[in-house]
Amino acid sequence: MNIKGVILCGGRGTRLRPLTYYFQKVMIPVGSKQKPLLEYIVRLLKFHRIEDIVLLVNYKAEQIINYFDDGSRFDVRIKYVYDNPEYQGNAGALYNAYLKGLLADQETLLVYYGDILSNINLSELIKNHLNKKAAATLALSTRYEVSVGVVEVSGRGQVVDIKEKPPLGKPVFIGILVLEGRYVPLIGELYKEGKSSVDIMGDLIPLLVKRKEPVYGYLTDAFWYDVGSTEKYEKLGPELVDKELNFLLG
User: Fold this and answer.
1) What is the DSSP code (8-state) at residue 197?
2) Backbone angles phi, psi at 92, to 5 degrees
3) What is the separation of C-alpha 236 from the centre of its chain, rounded to a whole number of angstroms?
4) First CA to last CA across the chain, in angstroms?
């Protein structure tokens, strides 16, 4: 089983400004031990025996490279690929790494968005993907809460019920997926069609579905947290990080 971890960590993190004027977003400190967000991701991959990792970098990449180096400090092997401006979008970062020979057709890729904290069982996700011979498997959470109050009104406009931040009731993508490497070249086809920017969830996965390739969802009730905005970061208490993720720190 040839599994390679691919972490998207090249974005400018505009929703996390002003912090990201000084930090690459994956390097912001979290938890009581103030470890970089990316360290928890790398350690989660290692915990599930994914030891070959490619980091797709660009903005403030030096902060990442100086901290993680070749990965030996974390008992993994890390390689870096700088984004190519010719291929905009997070799918473009994948395609660029493929063109540079760091991703291969015969590999199964565990793709992880770099602003997501989770303790998801990656081993089970990958096992599920392989058992179904999937082209792609999306990690989906059943625990997403709507961030605003939902109001029910009668036909006359009278308020009859209010639910403050209720569960959405539908699974949502949590920024983690498994993808067979042989499908990465399809991203190039999307650029040839005239797209200036190609997104994994906005373009590549819909293309696979349209072509009737086997795309599956993997439902999980694992902890996950999108740290992609200043508001979300401010609400991320160290106690929560410690409770859910300290097992990764030994």
Assistant:
1) B
2) -60, -35
3) 18
4) 26
Among candidates 27, 21, 31, which has minimal Cα distance to 9? 27
Q: Is 105 exposed, middle or buried (0-12, 13-18, 19+ CB in 10 A)?
A: exposed
Q: Give 169's DSSP letter.
A: S
205 burial type by CB count under 10 A (0-12 exposed, 13-18 middle, 19+ buried): buried
* pLDDT tens profile 131-189: 999 999 999 988 665 555 666 776 666 676 667 665 556 788 899 999 999 999 999 98
List of residues 6+ apart from 21 with CB closer than 8 A? none
pTM: 0.86
Per-residue model confidence as pLDDT tens digits over 206-243: 999 999 999 999 999 899 988 878 888 888 888 888 98
Domains of the chain: 3-248 (3.90.550.10)
